[in-house]
Amino acid sequence: MTETRFRPGGRTVPGPPVTLRTVALSCLAILSVATAVIHFATAGQHFQQYWLFGVFMLGAGWLQLLWAAAAAALPSRPLLWAGMILDTGVVAVYVVTRTAGDLVGPTAHTVEPVGFGDLLCTVFEVIVAAGCAWLLIARAGRPVWRLDPFIAPAITGGAVAALVSTALIAGGPEMVMNMSGAAAAPPSAPVSLATTSPAGPIIMPDGANMPAGMTMASSASCTAAPTAAQQQAAVRLVDASWQQAKKYEHLSAATAAGYRAVTPAGAPVVHYVNPRFYRQTVLGGPVLNTAQPQSLVYANTPSGPVLAAAMYITAPSGATPQPGGCLTQWHVHTNLCLRAGLGVVGALNAAHSSCPAGSANRPTPPMMHIWFVPIPGGPTAIDATDDQIVQAAGQTATTPGT
């Protein structure tokens, strides 16, 4: 027998009455879909940091999406328990990584920055967990007689769509404000971010003054002012790179770990590559693995070799993540004579117009320096001359040694 619901104004609507529980669960399902969308959208960059981070983001996203579908189709008390436990667990992981730091991976013990998108996702998860707990104890089976049962889900969906759209725009709300003409830092605004690296504070890299034989990995110029989240990410990358690279201050420690020279060992500045670490990157490992930088750079000073930089090298045509936005840019060399295995045997110039036998001129894979000596441009400077690097190495407090 069909039930009839009476509405204000004398209208009647056929069908069984909609309960408050059903309306609330519909709103919670919309929020759960939003958290899944944010997790899916950010999974790629987490895979670039560490495979387990990416797996976690995808796993959380799929579970939240499946929970939302089940909440709409088969609502039940076990489902409410599942939603409360799932979202409470994800929130707990967020709180730990933003207070104590990552527990695993190349950035272990490094505190993650708080951004608009991840904070919004966490707020949604808290609401879902709290909503499920409330529905487990509340008497929410009464019919919704006076309010159209579609109003609350429609309002929730519209608000959530607007917030998630803002969160997924590169730069988040700061970018939206900039596009609307509100006050935001102009591209030329000075940046000076303190780091623990002996290279000093991070400043905006200058990709316009590139020496011959170098070019940026991207053909589009990078001049956008970094957001607060990008600034924090750049500092995190520099600090983590320095903390992890300290064990290689003595060149003997680097060679014992498998690093081998790929540029002439007697040159003022020598690049060392770890074939095993680079192979892991080529096979899909994280590019910005601060615990295993693909390359280290040493400056030969009168006191001995000084660790000047860690250099991250991506696979040919591989990902070039920029966690710091324009503060973390990638470049390639176009004038080098390379042999197999990234070995550099020379450079093309006015005096040498062809490569030595057994080598060929081809662009290098994209690479990014993180400097540990105070060269012009700071710790994320795109590059420097050999003279600048050696001079800076002589000024650093880092103890040189073989």
Can you describe this structure?
- With 402 residues, this protein is α+β, with helices and mostly antiparallel strands.
- It folds into 2 domains: 4-168, no CATH class; 214-395, no CATH class.
- Helix content is 41%, strand content 13%.
- The protein contains 10 helices and 12 strands.
- Strands 4-5-6-7-12 form a 5-stranded antiparallel β-sheet. Strands 10-9-11 form a 3-stranded antiparallel β-sheet, with no helix packed on it. The protein has a two-stranded antiparallel ribbon with strand order 1-2.
- Strand 9 (336-339) and strand 10 form a beta hairpin.
- Mean pLDDT is 82; it is low at 170-188.
Number of domains: 2
Helix content: 40-55%
Q: Terminal Cα separation, in Å?
A: 89 Å
Q: What's the count of strands?
A: 12
Number of continuous helical runs: 10
Order of helices and strands: EEHHHHHHEHHEEHEEEEEEEH
Radius of gyration (CA) equals 27 Å
Mean pLDDT over all positions: 82
Global outline: elongated
Key terms for this structure?
about 40% helix, five-stranded antiparallel sheet, 10 helices, alpha+beta
Helix-strand blueprint:
Blueprint: E1 4-6, E2 12-14, H1 20-49, H2 51-73, H3 77-99, H4 116-137, H5 151-168, H6 172-179, E3 214-216, H7 228-245, H8 251-256, E4 260-261, E5 269-273, H9 275-282, E6 295-301, E7 304-313, E8 331-333, E9 336-339, E10 343-347, E11 360-361, E12 367-371, H10 386-395
Antiparallel strand pairs: 1-2, 3-8, 4-5, 5-6, 6-7, 7-12, 9-10, 9-11
